[in-house]
Amino acid sequence: MTKRLRDAALTVVALLFILGFESGFLPLYIDVCSKNPHAGDKECAAHNVSVYLLLTIGSIIDEHNGVLTAIFTAIIGYFTFTLWRSHDEQINSNYRIERAYISALGLGFNGTVQSLGSGTRSVTRFPGGPPNWVEVTVSNFGKTPGEIVDVRVAFLDGDIPAEPPSFAEGEIHYANFWLKPDTQNHSVKLVPIPGLNRPIAYGRVFYRDIIQKKLHSCGFILEITSADGSQPIRAPRAYSEDRDEPEDEAPRAHSALLPTPPPH
Fold it and tell me: Which of 97, 124, 144 is at the close of a domain?
């Protein structure tokens, strides 16, 4: 390391001196004076500039090789860290661009829902009449598939607390399917509306992206009305915001803890 460092430094200095001589900026010879330790007289002699300085620089490197090695090691470490950080930022930027972005929407309607077995249902909608069901749909506006992990739906009666109440076990509906990019308004859950004076439905859909398998969620809130089925309602941002979720928020059902393979 020390020999290589010395050779590199001497090569750089030699090139600089060649350029200096060629341009006429540096003289070819200089007088170097020193005091004779015996006679006490000052003695001077002409030395070739390039040879003298190269020997002097080589001597300095030999005497301080530990310090110079530490300095160059620190410089190399700094540039290595800079390259690593730039690479890490590029990966995170690509992830933000390519990951799945799921949004959820609720819609109230009047109708009947009949189970046909194997997880399928027959839905009959009636125009008019008070809504008795809430349909939750999801859309993927990202560039890669997202795994819908679960759908959580609950109801309020008129008043909207500043923080959304926690979902009870019976209000968490496990899903575990992959939603392809550019899919819009895919129905994921039908929930009956309870008998309340002024029902307000709110919910949150938990999902994972296919790239880093991180857990995210998106929310919705709507007021159930007799005229239009449902309509948007002013509520704190915590009800509808998109957010990253900690892993301890993952569903407690064993089958829903790990992502399932995406469809081929």
Answer: 97
Residue 122 CB contacts under 8 Å (≥ 6 apart), including other chains = 113, 114, 115, 116
Q: Tens digits of per-residue pLDDT, 201-237?
A: 999 999 999 888 899 999 999 999 877 788 889 999 9
Structural tokens at position 213:
């398998």
Report the candidate in 190, 198, 204, 206 with the shortest Cα–Cα distance to residue 233.
198
Q: How confident is the model at residue 86 (pLDDT cuts 50, 70, 90)?
A: low
- Provide the domain limits for residue 73: 2-97
pLDDT on residue 247: 82
Burial class of 5 by CB neighbour count within 10 A (0 to 12, 13 to 18, 19+): middle
**Per-residue model confidence (pLDDT) at position 39:** 62
Nearest to 131 by CA among 158, 119, 113: 113
Give the list of residues 6+ apart from residue 130 with CB closer than 8 angstroms, or none. 110, 226
Tens digits of residue pLDDT in 120-134: 778 888 887 789 999
Q: Would you say residue 263 lies in a domain?
A: no
What's the mean pLDDT in 2-31? 57
State how many domains the chain has.
Answer: 2
